[in-house]
Amino acid sequence: MQLDPHHLSALSAILRHGSFEIAAAELSVTPSAISQRIKSLEDRVGVALVQRGVPCTGTPAGLRIARHAEDIGLLEAQLGQELAIDRATGPARVKIAVPADSLATWFIDAMAQVDDMLFDLVVDDQDHSAEWLRRGEVSAAITVGGQSVTGCDATALGTLRYLATASPGYMHKWFADGVNHTSLARAPCLTFNQKDNLQRAWIATQTSQRISPPSHFLPSTQGFVEAAAAGLGWGMNPEVLAQPFINDDRLCEVVPNSHLDVALTWQVGRILAPALAPLTRAVKDAATQALIRV
Asked: Could you write out the DSSP letters of every residue in the chain?
């Protein structure tokens, strides 16, 4: 099935901005023209592609077709570079699933090394970023562990080290009698979101038991560190972010020398791997500088 590139660009713009009006402004056409393009595309494929609302969102078919359009853009950009063809359409766009902690600690350095590319980042828990690849909704992802997603090239990057940290005042209040099964079961912890398993994983390594302590949900990497320093709860923070707070005696390790290392992998769709080779090199270089090699 051959799809009109103008229709595809309209769909991508709507899903990117969540608005027909903003998409029209980006493409320098009227909102009516955008609506007509989407209607024609929906008639062509025979299914609804956009869920109208505030914001507009894509149906499963719409998301898949928009991803297809972005992939075409990447491949065309690669071809243009190989043939020294000037591209008048601007830089290619790539959609990537990135864990919040990687984005906050090292991934932006990789992005900054790549020219002529626009990034559309999906920020999700590191244990679940691979699902975006499996569903075909992103072109690449930072995932946990070494198991590759079918159809993707996988590159081991190193490990991101986490420390279980809390403020000295919090330690005195909740762990005065030691860090054990009983105290961990009642001491409030910090959890990024419902998908975050780091705190429970650390507890399991310390106690060999499954415990679900009371928890604050706080979906912010920087807020996570600051909440721990403020005494709101204990939590697993990337060492690179926690260390300055430890140096200033605003945080301390809940159990000294009990870090938790999370192995990270860069995965990219095999068809797009050549087009994303400059980004892959940048990711590997930034990871070498920031992550622990084991």
From this structure: ----HHHHHHHHHHHHHT-HHHHHHHHTS-HHHHHHHHHHHHHHHTS--EE-SSS-EE-HHHHHHHHHHHHHHHHHHHHHHHTTPPPTT-SEEEEEEEEHHHIIIIIHHHHHT--SEEEEEEEE-TTTHHHHHHTT--SEEEEESSPPPTTEEEEEEEEEEEEEEE-HHHHHHH-TT-SSHHHHHHS-EEESSTT--HHHHHHHHHHSS-----EEE---HHHHHHHHHTTS-BEEEEHHHHHHHHHTTS-EESSTT--EEEEEEEEEEGGGTTTTHHHHHHHHHHHHHHSBP-
Domain 1-76 belongs to what architecture? Orthogonal Bundle (1.10)
Q: Can you give the pTM of this predicted structure?
A: 0.75
Average pLDDT over residues 157-172: 97
pLDDT the model gives residue 83: 46
CATH superfamily, domain at 160-261: Periplasmic binding protein-like II (3.40.190.10)
The mean per-residue pLDDT over the stretch 241-251 comes to 97
Percent of the chain, pLDDT > 90? 55
- Judge contact between 229 and 251, C-beta under 8 A: yes
Please report, for the chain, the start and end positions of each structural domain, with discontinuous segments joined by +: 1-76, 160-261
Q: What are phi and psi of 149, to 5 degrees?
A: -80, 140
